[in-house]
Design a protein that fits this description.
Blueprint (H helix, E strand, L loop, with lengths): L4 H15 L3 E9 L2 E8 L2 E8 L6 E5 L11 H10 L3 E6 L6 E9 L5 E9 L6 E5 L5 E4 L35 H10 L5 H8 L5 H10 L13 H19 L6 E4 L6 E5 L10 E4 L3 H21 L1 H27 L3 H13 L10 E5 L8 E5 L6 H43 L5 H13 L21 E4 L5 E4 L3 H11 L5 E5 L7 E3 L9 H13 L9 E7 L3 E2 L10 E2 L3 E5 L3 H7 L3
Antiparallel strand pairs: 1-2, 2-3, 3-4, 5-6, 6-7, 7-8, 8-9, 10-11, 10-12, 13-14, 15-16, 16-18, 17-18, 17-19, 19-22, 20-21
Helix pairs in contact: 4-5, 8-10, 9-10
Length: 588
C-alpha cells in the first residue's frame, strides 16, 4: 500500500513507544533528501531514518548504515546546531495527514530550553523535511521552496510554517454515519473506491479497495448502485478499519507474488485482497518499511549508478550503427566492380578499333551468352589504353575496398553484438557487485578507462550467477554479465552439463548441472530455455529460439570478446518467456 495516513499512524504509534524521552545524537545527511540520526533511550540506542525522497518518503527505525559525505550539507549543520542533544518530547500526526511532527526540547543560544519541531511531509515529489522553532518559524528545510516554485506556500528560512493546503477531505478518525451517507448521496456517479480515498484524509486507493473487498462490494461500482444494506456494510467495514487504527491493531506484512518472488505490496493492516499471495509478517512497522524500501531503493540506486554506463553503451551502439550504414553504402557504391573490370578488358580487346578522342565506344559483350551490344563511356582526352587502365584501377580500388570492408564489417558486427549483450546484462544486474563487474569488463575491452582503487577502499564483492532449481530438482545457473558468462561456461560448468543460449540474440549463458547424467528431463530443459529467453533481449517476444548443447561443444575463439563463444551439434527449442515461472524457480 502507499505510505498513506494509516501507515503514517502506525509509524507514529511505534515511534512514540520507542523514541519519547530519548536524546538525539550523531545527525548525518548521507544523500541530499535523507537525514539519519541516533536516539539514546533507556531501552537502548536507535538509528532513525527520515527521508524526503520523492519516490520513497518515510520515517522509521533502521539497521542499515550509509556512507556520509566528508562535509556535512547545510541542512545537516542546522539540525546539529538546533537539535543535537535535544530530547524528544512528543510525536504527532496533524489531522490524520501524511505528516509526522517530532517535538524536540533543546537549549537555544541563551541556554533556555525551547521546543523545536522536525516535520516530515510525505507528499510524493513534494515531500519535505522542515525544522521550525517554538514559534513555528522555519529554521531551514531539506528542500527549500521559493515563490518561483510555489506561489501557494513558500518553505524558506524565516517564513512562518503552515500546513500544506487542505483538500477539503474529512478526517476518518472522526467518522460519522450520518455524514458518511450524506457524502454518498452527494456523489452518486462516483466510483466507490474513488469516493473513499477522495473524501477522507489518509485513505489511499489500495486501502479504499481493501475496505470494499472486506465489505464484499465491487470498488469500481458507482455509489448510486449501492443498496441500503451495502451502504451500511461499507460504513461498518470502514468504521472497523479505523477502530483497528485507533486501537493500534497492526499486523505489518509484505506480500509477494510467490515465495521468494517479486514484491507486490506491503500493509500494516491485514490485506484480505491479497489472500492468494505469499505473505511475510514482521514484528514492527520499521522492519516492514526497511525490507520493502531497501529493495526499492536498491533498485533505484543501481539504476541511477548504471545510468552513465548505459549511456556510454548506447553511444557506442549508435556509433556502430552509423558505421554499419556507411559500410553498407560503400558496398553499394562498389557493387559494379566486376562491370568495371569487364569494360577494361573489352576496351583492351578492341583497342585498335577505337577511334582517337572517342567519348563512347560500342562493342559486343562476349562475356554474356546472348552477346548483347554494350556501350562504354570513354574520356576523349585519354588514349584507349589509358581508358582501359582507368577502369582497371577503379576495379582494383573497389576490390581492395571490399576486402577492407569485409574485415571492418566483421569487427563492427562483433562489437555491435557485444555492446548489445552488455546492454542486456545491465537489465539483469541486482547489486553493486554486478555493476562493478560490467564496468571491469568494459575497461578490459577498452570502452572505459581503467581506474585504480582508492587507497583503503574495499574491493567490491564478487558477483555470483543467479541460481535456480528446476521442478525436477536440477540446479540451473544463469550469468548476469559477459565476464560471468565466460566463467560460468568455461570454468564452472562440467563438460557434460547442458549449455543454453538464445539463438543469435544477446542474452545470458545458462547451465543445467547434470551431475554427469547423459540426459535431463524435458520439463527441466524447458524451464532452462525459459530462463535463457527471459534473461535475453527477446524477453518480451514469443516463441524465442534457444540453442542447447553439451558444454563440451562450446568453444571460445582466440581474441573473442567476453561472453562470445561458438558451438556445434546443437539443438533448438522454441519458448515464450514466462516471468511467473522464473519467480517460482529462483532461489538466490
Amino acid at each position: 500500500m502507499a505510505l498513506d495516513g494509516i501507515t503514517t499512524a502506525a509509524i507514529l504509534h511505534e515511534m512514540k513507544s520507542i523514541l519519547i524521552g530519548g536524546r538525539i545524537d550523531k545527525i548525518h545527511q548521507p544523500v541530499s533528501d535523507e537525514i539519519r540520526f541516533s536516539v539514546r533511550t533507556t531501552g537502548g540506542n536507535y538509528k532513525v531514518l527520515a527521508s524526503a525522497n520523492s519516490g520513497h518518503p518515510r520515517l522509521h527505525i533502521t539497521e542499515h548504515t550509509r556512507e556520509n559525505p566528508m562535509t556535512a550539507p547545510l541542512f545537516c549543520m542546522v539540525l546539529r546546531k538546533h537539535i543535537a542533544g535535544g530530547k524528544i518530547v512528543n510525536l504527532s500526526q496533524p489531522n490524520f495527514e501524511r505528516i509526522l511532527v517530532i517535538d524536540i526540547e533543546s537549549a537555544n543560544e541563551m541556554g533556555d530550553l525551547t521546543t523545536k519541531h522536525l516535520i516530515l511531509e510525505i507528499m510524493g515529489k513534494h515531500s519535505n523535511l522542515i525544522l521550525t522553532d517554538e514559534n513555528n518559524k522555519i529554521l531551514d528545510a531539506i528542500k527549500r521552496v521559493s515563490h518561483d516554485k510555489s506561489s501557494v506556500r513558500e518553505v524558506l528560512p524565516g517564513k512562518t510554517y503552515v500546513l500544506p493546503p487542505s483538500q477539503e477531505k474529512q478526517d476518518p478518525t472522526q467518522l460519522n454515519q450520518t455524514q458518511f451517507f450524506s457524502f454518498l448521496q452527494v456523489q452518486p456517479g462516483q466510483k466507490i473506491q474513488n469516493f473513499l480515498y477522495q473524501s477522507y484524509t489518509g485513505i489511499s486507493p489500495i486501502m479504499a479497495a481493501e475496505i470494499c473487498h472486506r465489505a464484499q462490494i465491487d470498488p469500481s461500482n458507482a455509489c448510486v448502485q449501492l443498496t441500503q444494506t451495502q451502504a451500511e456494510q461499507l460504513y461498518t467495514t470502514f468504521s472497523a478499519v479505523m477502530q483497528d487504527v485507533a486501537m493500534a491493531q497492526y499486523t505489518p506484512a509484505i506480500y509477494y507474488q510467490k515465495a521468494g518472488g517479486k514484491i507486490i505490496d506491503f500493509g500494516v493492516l491485514p490485506m484480505t485482497q491479497f489472500d492468494t499471495l505469499y505473505k511475510k509478517t514482521f514484528s514492527s512497522i520499521s522492519a516492514v518499511l526497511e525490507a520493502f524500501y531497501t529493495e526499492r531503493d536498491n533498485a533505484a540506486h543501481i539504476k541511477q549508478r548504471a545510468h552513465d554506463t548505459r549511456r556510454l553503451i548506447l553511444t557506442n551502439i549508435e556509433r556502430c550503427v552509423k558505421k554499419k550504414e556507411i559500410q553498407q553504402k560503400t558496398l553499394r557504391d562498389i557493387a559494379n566492380r566486376e562491370v568495371w573490370k569487364r569494360k577494361g578488358e573489352l576496351i583492351t580487346a578492341n583497342i585498335y578499333a577505337i577511334a582517337p578522342q572517342s567519348s563512347v565506344f560500342r562493342t559486343t559483350d562476349f562475356y554474356e551468352p546472348d552477346l548483347p551490344e554494350i556501350e562504354i563511356a570513354l574520356d576523349p582526352t585519354k588514349t584507349p589504353a589509358e581508358n582501359a587502365q582507368k577502369y582497371f584501377q577503379k576495379y582494383n580500388k573497389a576490390k581492395r575496398t571490399l576486402a577492407a570492408m569485409q574485415i571492418q564489417q566483421k569487427q563492427n558486427d562483433e562489437e555491435l553484438a557485444y555492446l548489445e549483450s552488455v546492454l542486456q546484462a545491465l537489465d539483469t544486474i541486482k547489486d553493486e557487485a554486478d555493476l562493478a563487474e560490467i564496468r571491469t569488463e568494459l575497461a578490459e575491452s577498452g570502452f572505459i578507462r581503467r581506474t585504480a582503487p582508492k587507497k583503503g577502499q574495499a574491493k567490491p564483492k564478487k558477483a555470483k550467477p543467479m541460481r535456480f532449481i528446476s521442478s525436477d530438482g536440477y540446479e540451473i545457473l544463469v550469468g548476469k554479465s559477459n565476464l560471468q558468462n565466460d566463467t560460468l561456461t568455461l570454468k564452472t560448468a562440467e563438460p557434460t552439463d547442458i549449455w543454453l543460449h538464445t539463438k543469435e540474440i544477446p542474452g545470458s549463458h545458462v547451465i543445467i548441472r547434470t551431475q554427469g547424467q547423459n540426459e535431463v528431463p524435458i520439463p527441466t530443459l524447458e524451464e532452462a530455455a525459459n530462463l535463457a529467453a527471459y534473461f535475453s533481449k527477446a524477453k518480451n517476444s514469443s516463441m524465442v529460439p534457444v540453442d542447447y548443447t553439451q558444454r563440451k561443444n562450446v568453444k571460445k575463439p582466440n581474441g573473442a570478446k567476453p561472453g562470445m563463444v561458438i558451438y556445434l551439434t546443437n539443438k533448438t527449442i522454441y519458448i515464450t518467456p514466462d516471468e511467473e515461472k522464473v519467480n517460482q524457480m529462483q532461489t538466490t
